[in-house]
Amino acid sequence: MQSYNIAQLSEQTGLSPHTLRYYEKESLIQHVPRDAGGRRRYGEVHLKTIKFVNALRATGMPIREIKRYLAFYQLGPATKADRLALLESHRAKVKEELEAVRANLTIIDKKIQGYKEGKF
Q1: Which stretches does DSSP call E strand in the chain?
Q2: Which domains does the chain have, with CATH numbers?
Q3: What is the pLDDT of residues 71-97, one digit of tens each?
């Protein structure tokens, strides 16, 4: 099983060690074992969790909602519907934001084209 120290995990995820410790403090990363010297040792499950949390954060999900999702996950299969509903709701919000960005990009593209055609 692959194991990472905090510097290696930082390199793998693009997050600073400070952020990784914060995620652990906030229970976004759980059950991190320590070696004989007291240093954190992260496994593949931690790496996958962090990548998922990063995707949720990058798409605007608040930490409190991520915690809610993870709490449902910890409760097991009985919460599958709750987890699915939370993710579908977030996905709908992300799609709305994406459409707004696309609309704004169209406006910017038209302005750029106007400059290129000498209209401005």
Answers
A1: 3-4, 42-43
A2: 1-58 (1.10.1660.10)
A3: 999 999 999 999 999 999 999 999 999
